[in-house]
Amino acid sequence: MKKLFIFIFLANGLLSYSQEASYTSTEIPISKFIDGTLLTPNDGAESLAIILAGSGPTDRDGNQNFLKTNNLKKLAVALTNNGIATFRYDKRIVKQIRKGSLDPNIKFDDFVTDAIATIDYFKAKNNFKKIYIIGHSQGSLVGLLAAKDKAHGFISLAGAGQTIDKVITEQVQKTAPMFIEDTKRVFGILKEGKTTTEYPPALASIFDISVQKFIANWMSYDPVEEIKKLDIPILVINGTKDLQVSVEEAKLLNDAGKNSELKLIEKMNHVLFIIEGDDLENSKSYNDHAGKVSSELIETIISFIKK
């Protein structure tokens, strides 16, 4: 059940990894819900990449309370060191938790609203010729919905190609098949717009009554159908050692996109690190603050944005 919990609540060549900052960092409040960090190359930039975090109370750096990798911060710095401005922000749930005012009625749509507000903010400033959206995990679907008619390009990092109920059902089938019928039953109830307290305690991390309406809202969006609506360049990236999102999910997205290209990175996992060992090493990397984001990933994104 550990994998289920993580999912829900959760260079070489041209790259520069200089320890000396070659960019300016600016803190920007987009709205009363979200604050973020803009990194701008000292020599300026034509393009801005807005990075959207994955599921759970994930902050702008890609961290949660007990899962600290700084993976999104490392990605942002690497891109900015190579001439691409970046903006990343704390999800609104992070700010609410810090203030002790968690909204019990928060919806998946709220994350989309925040992403759209961020795009609109920078479009209004008109400091960049092009704006790209990079969505990681849950942020991939958020980005798909926000990018339509607003962004110049979209990048999916470890994004699911199926609705979230199907993804979770497959995870349960693989890791805890004794709960598969209960999982299907509860998802059926949620699809009807109802909630329930009748589920095994082992599935509480998925179906706690406090998150059922959020999940119902989330599962109402089919990534394959949403990506069909984008008329912009699309890059779909997945790692072959991703424990949460399989390469098959990435292929579903890529096949559905009108102008999409697929990049599978050998040995990269869900937190964007290269894993040489087994699943134990993979799991431990979720709290490895010293881990390095895949250089191939960074090169691929830079090439896509600058071409």
Please give a structural write-up:
It is a single chain. The protein is α/β, with parallel strands linked by helices. It folds into two domains: 2-163 and 223-306, Alpha/Beta hydrolase fold, catalytic domain (Rossmann fold); 176-220, no CATH class. Helices cover 39% and strands 16% of the residues. It has 13 helices and eight strands. The protein has an eight-stranded mixed β-sheet, with helices on both faces. Strand 7, helix 11 (247-256) and strand 8 form a beta-alpha-beta unit. Helix 4 (108-125) crosses helix 5 and helix 6 (164-175) runs antiparallel to helix 7 (180-191). The longest helix has 18 residues, at 108-125.
Strand content: 15-25%
Level of helix content?
Answer: 25-40%
Q: Can you summarize the main beta sheet?
A: 8 strands, mixed
Uncertain parts:
1-19
Overall shape: it is globular
Which strands sit side by side, in order, in the main sheet? 1-2-4-3-5-6-7-8
* Rg, nearest Å: 19 Å
Please give the number of β-strands.
8
CATH class of the largest domain: Alpha Beta
- The assigned structural class equals alpha/beta
CATH level-4 homologous superfamily of the largest domain: Alpha/Beta hydrolase fold, catalytic domain
Q: What is the H/E string?
A: HEEEHEHHEHEHHHHHEHEHH
- Number of helices, where a helix is a run of at least 4 consecutive DSSP H or I residues: 13
Mean pLDDT over all positions: 92
Distance between the termini: 42 Å
CATH topology of the largest domain: Rossmann fold
CATH architecture of the largest domain: 3-Layer(aba) Sandwich
How many structural domains does the protein architecture include?
A: 2
